[in-house]
Amino acid sequence: MTARKPLIALTPNYNIEKEETYMRPAYIRAIQHAGGIPVTLPLNNTKEDLKQLAKEFDGFLFTGGPDVHSFYFGEETHAHCGNVSPKRDTLELALLKLVLEMKKPVLGICRGIQLFNIGLGGDIYQDLPSQFPQKFPVAHSQPFYYDIPSHTVEVVPGTILEKIVQDAKLKAAHQENCHDADDSDAFDPLSGGCTPGILADSAPDYGIPGTFADPAPDHRTSGTFADPAPDHYTPVISLASPSASSTKIQVNSMHHQAVRKVAPGLIASGYAPEGLVEALEMPDYPGFFLGVQWHPEYLWEKDGVAAGIFQYFVNASRASSSQY
Asked: Is the pLDDT of residue 239 over 70?
């Protein structure tokens, strides 16, 4: 009998001008690869509908998107703020409260980490260029495509994020052992060992750190907020895992806001250069609680840490499904 896959709820993107919801394919592919079934939530829900959705799904991914309205953390709107989506703010803040009460696994990406912090009593920088001066101006809104990292993040020891990084290092080491032991063996990402008789060079890419391959096909639908189209190149840069002694990882970056005052009950588990918060966790949360400022959905095919973020989240959601 086939094991039940966990159902993962994704908060929807919303085109305000066209009043249309949509979902970026990168999120869908990342959840499917990790073993979950992704489902985009409706934008408008009654309180009862939202309670049922919170109960029925096994895990919740709070996706990237527009700025959260500044009134939710008690500030006037900054002159350099972008567009907001009141309907998304209403949905996601109400949903966050419900799923945390039910101890369901949650993963927040970009806007998601900011919404976690705001919803739990923290605040954010409304505009990094004007509110967060840097000695060296790190590109938090990178000028190149999203499957290329643009800066590093220092990972805090003893956190979920550090566990994910260490796991990625082990998998990378196993992959190297497969190559060293026998050129005909391939790394098996499910068992963490080698599969005899398959040429390692022809094995599919499961997100283990290595060099860049050709960019994946772009399946975006015209008329949505399109990402920049990738150029077809083979960069010489590598997405290798940090060394065994390093606590730094490489991430992409596409945001102009970020966590400022960390909410009560949360801790920062990753920092960009000059101390900007890049990851948040809730210690002792019985499920899985992680927010990241970067976009691992564009990196997981080549980067073990990014793949591990989705794998840990989906695994926790699978465990959650057995409790309900």
From this structure: no
